[in-house]
TrEMBL record, chain A:
Keywords: Membrane, Transmembrane, Transmembrane helix. This is ABC transporter permease. The chain crosses the membrane at residues 21-40, 116-134, 155-180, 225-244, 251-271, 302-322. The keyword Transmembrane applies. GO terms for cellular component: plasma membrane. GO terms for molecular function: ABC-type transporter activity. The keyword Zinc does not apply. It comes from Paenibacillus antarcticus. Signal peptide: none annotated. Pfam families: ABC2_membrane_2.
TrEMBL record, chain B:
Keywords: Membrane, Transmembrane, Transmembrane helix. InterPro entries: Ester_Hydrolysis_Enzymes (IPR051532), SGNH_hydro (IPR013830), SGNH_hydro_sf (IPR036514). The chain crosses the membrane at residues 6-30. Residues 67-275 form the SGNH hydrolase-type esterase domain. It holds the Pfam family Lipase_GDSL_2. The keyword Transmembrane applies. This is SGNH hydrolase-type esterase domain-containing protein. It comes from Paenibacillus antarcticus. Coiled coil: none annotated. The keyword Transport does not apply. One of its GO terms (molecular function) is phosphatidylcholine lysophospholipase activity.
Amino acid sequence: MSNILPLIQNECIKIIKKKRFYVVLLVLLVLVPIFTYAQMRSSELSRDKFNGDWRLELQQQITDNQNSLGSDRIPEEWKKYRLIFVQQLQYYLDHNVNPKEPNGVTFTREFMDNSINLFIPLLIMAIASDIVSGERTTGTIKMLLTRPVKRWKVLLSKMITMIMFVSLIIFSTFAISYLISGAFFGYVGFNIPVFTGFQISGSNVDMSAVHAVPQWEYLLMQCGLIWFVAVTVALLAFMVSVLVKSTAASIVVMMAALIAGTILTNMASAWTSAKYLFMVNLQLTNYLAGTPAPIEGMNLNFSLIVLGIWALVSVVVSFTVFTKRDILN
Amino acid sequence: MNSSKWIWRIVSVASIATTLVLLVGFIYAIKDVNAPQVGVENERPSQPIGEGVADSMDKKKEYKIAAIGDSLAKGTGDQTGSGFVKRSVEGLAKSSSKKTTLLNNLGINGLTTDGLVKKLDEEGVQYVLKQSDIIILSIGGNDLFQGAQLLSSAKGKSGETTNTTSTSTVQDVTAEKITSALPKASAQLKVALEKIRTINPDSYIIYVGLYNPFGDMKELKVVGNEAVTKWNNVALTTINKYENMTLVPTFDLFTHNLKRYLSTDHFHPNAEGYQQIANRIVQGIE
């Protein structure tokens, strides 16, 4: 174990020096202000419409959704979503809590929620997809393997480094989003109550387990779940990176899988065995918020197990392939 | 080499710290979803909704309008989607010097008096009503012409405007059904009106009277007209008891103008019909 630490150190310095991490930060610094501005405009618009009273806005939202329930043109599946949504909104209204109180923390919460299945994995890939195949593209992998170090140790050091950066990326996403949106909406809101624990059975919401948690705690839980998802995606990208020679190809493969996931979650409710695919299980924060899972029979533990198995398999594949394969260029 | 050392130190410490924090969050999340701790709820003192917010607005300065009721309040059948609510708000803004704002339109397709009475118990609805100076109510059509509404609104919405619409509604709406629904529904109407009055004693309540959408069908003309008249009478008896409450008649508007004012679903008014109702509402307020 003693000689793995220098390897990790080496990898970390490489990532920083190669400016991979700066790319991630730059993307965040460019995109977050755009989202913040869009959010600000939309909240300004609704403020004008409803005299700045969120209760009126919420009530109108409930009414509009109820109206659409009566329409025959809307698929049953969507009706179920809306019915659940209406019940949750009603709960917020009854408890006099604004679910969308505009402040930096709420913005961050929603931003993290929306970026779990595509945006954060994308950022992760900037590092994970490059970490092995990048060495092969440049040919430096030979240098690395001619050293008197076991191959699995080299790979393990890369994997550990990657997970370290996964944590850093999630933290940076949170920090940047909070700092920038806070400048627009104010830096308060850590103690606002958020309801969690909506249990969905059919199209009804069981409110018995609903409880309020302060927003900081909600964010912490949310980031924890995002971290798990991100690690899984990173390990998968890592495997692809081991299997595929070029960085570009490994990014394309991972992106294709993730985009397929978002399309599938939108339409695959009829194909139930799709729930064993990792990309359908990425929306872990939905279980926290009480949004119904895309496919019947999915719950948090199920998704965690599915993701865990995928992650485990990709670790095993990565190591067996990397230690056995001939390195040719 | 020195900078590398610093990079390593910062990166390693930061990443280990964040990983630990995120792990804690992860475990918390699993715990919370699987075994939610109930009882922390309601920690926040929930201020009674509506109080303090519904300040006694100087009515001379501003009209705050809310609408509640069925598809007519919502504006179904109006191609522009405005319905009489938006139209009367616009009309009022034009004709009076006061600022007119529409707080909420709580119209829901297919709402019956039963549904309305239940809805009035919701805090969110009460909150809206408490704040409004003018409350426009439209209800009852679905009680009397049950079945016809669901069918025709679905057809009208999807834009399938075939002639079968009117014939199929006739089968659904029979004379017996109309008359049998009358006593219970009108009692519920009374309850609803009284409820709104207690929720907001100061507002001006406008009840939009019913018309007979089947006036051009032999089988239903007489029964329909009778039922609608009776209904409007019952509504008026309740309304007369209160100050600041009025019924805006629509029966006469539609009787001989069904072709002009009804939308293609042969149940809801069209844009022009809604405009006529809105005109009357505005006239009543001025």
